[in-house]
Design a protein that fits this description.
Largest interface: A-B, 108 and 96 residues
Strand content of chain B: under 5%
Number of domains of chain A: 2
Number of domains of chain B: 2
Order of helices and strands of chain A: HHHHHHH
Distance between the termini of chain A: 35 Å
Shape of chain B: globular
Number of strands of chain A: 0
Distance between the termini of chain B: 46 Å
Helix content of chain B: over 70%
Structural class of chain A: mainly alpha
Strand content of chain A: under 5%
Number of strands of chain B: 0
Largest sheet of chain B: none
Oligomer: heterodimer
Largest sheet of chain A: none
Radius of gyration of chain A: 18 Å
Number of helices of chain B: 8
Helix content of chain A: over 70%
Chain lengths: ~180, ~190
């Protein structure tokens, strides 16, 4: 029971303080789930992100379900997911009920201009921290650069990118005939 | 029964929108066309609000749409509908992953997917950076010197320094709150 409450609370914090969707959650996931509780590892976080790209639904919900499931099975997954959406329900209902033109208010726009700057630095920090876990040799550098270029300069669906990389990865690994750590 | 229909419409959205919150928008446009729950103008407001409030964008829009159609309970039902498919599918995959964690092929797949997922996160970060740091109007009019917002760059530098001082051990929440205050005080949007 204590673990379920902790899961709910941690994910509610993540939901309440993530601005800009699933990718922006990475720094919070790292702090709360890897550093503070040790519920998952940096490698597993990256796996969850990759899987979330090609499964339906909101990335944050997928990640919450994975982490919750690992700790406490199906009920853990449900509790973590409800935690991550709980702040949204409260905040959005309050805004929808009482505040007209919320997104046009000067104070909101200014606060968000500041938060956006912060979020890109936090994402940069998270990527820098995860770098050595993901980039281990020249093959992974090539994959990184190729996917970055595809994501930035083409409209190819991320589903196909992820599936393509998975296939290439299996082929490369079997050609090299060595199991990867 | 409005709540059953809300649940079903958002369940379908959650099932077919692959790749994150913004992928739900085409489905919401379609719901708007078929029902009288919310107009396309209201949908545009919803997206703006979803992007300027905390939480997953897809969840925020679902809550808002549900609330507009039938109040608080509508907001809750629509949100539960949206997250149900992901919850079920992710549980199945999580179970699979626990069983096959040490399988060689699964390991080989993730060997390539980790750098791919880093690249997708980097691309998303660069997208936010473009919005936050670059004045696109100046950029497209060829004014390359004036294209950077220097106050935003200064804030970025401060955040970069304070988040990398190990002794401070700042929680991301503290840094986000600090940046919001700086944004308000220095009127960063204007």
């Amino acid at each position: 029971m204590k673990l379920l409450l902790e899961l709910f609370w941690s994910f509610a914090k993540i939901g309440a303080f993530t601005f800009g969707g699933g990718y922006a959650m990475l720094p919070m996931f790292q702090k709360e789930l890897v550093d503070a509780h040790g519920w998952t590892t940096s490698e597993e976080l990256m796996d969850y992100y990759a899987i979330s790209q090609c499964t339906p639904g909101v990335i944050a919900v997928n990640a919450a379900t994975f982490v919750g499931y690992k700790q406490k099975g199906v009920i853990g997954g449900i509790v973590a997911t409800l935690g991550v959406v709980f702040p949204s329900i409260v905040i959005i209902c309050i805004i929808a009920a009482f505040i007209r033109n919320f997104a046009d208010m000067a104070v909101v726009k200014n606060a968000f201009a500041g938060i956006r700057v912060c979020v890109c630095v936090l994402i940069f920090n998270a990527v820098a921290k995860l770098w050595k876990n993901a980039i281990k040799d020249w093959v992974s550098i090539v994959i990184y650069l190729a996917v970055l270029a595809l994501a930035l300069f083409t409209d190819i669906s991320k589903i196909f990118i992820v599936i393509g990389v998975a296939v290439i990865s299996v082929i490369v690994c079997s050609v090299r005939k060595e199991a990867v750590k | 029964m409005i709540f059953l229909r809300l649940f079903w419409e958002f369940f379908k959205t959650g099932l077919f929108a692959v790749g994150g919150g913004l992928a739900t928008i085409p489905f919401l446009q379609e719901i708007s066309a078929r029902t009288n729950w919310f107009s396309l103008n209201e949908l545009a407001d919803m997206i703006a609000i979803a992007e300027s409030t905390p939480g997953p964008i897809g969840v925020n829009t679902a809550t808002y749409a549900g609330f507009l159609s039938s109040g608080l309970l509508g907001g809750i039902v629509a949100t539960l509908g949206l997250i149900c498919p992901a919850l079920i599918i992710a549980s199945v995959i999580a179970n699979f992953m626990q069983k096959f964690r040490d399988n060689r092929i699964v390991k080989n797949v993730f060997y390539g997917l980790r750098p791919a997922s880093m690249a997708l996160i980097s691309a998303a970060g660069l997208g936010v950076a473009k919005l936050a740091l670059v004045d696109m109007e100046a950029f497209s009019s060829g004014c390359y010197i004036g294209m950077f917002d220097y106050r935003a760059l200064a804030l970025a530098a401060v955040v970069l320094v304070i988040t990398n001082i190990k002794k401070l051990k700042l929680h991301p929440i503290a840094v986000i709150a600090f940046s919001a205050v700086v944004g308000i005080v220095f009127k960063l949007a204007g």
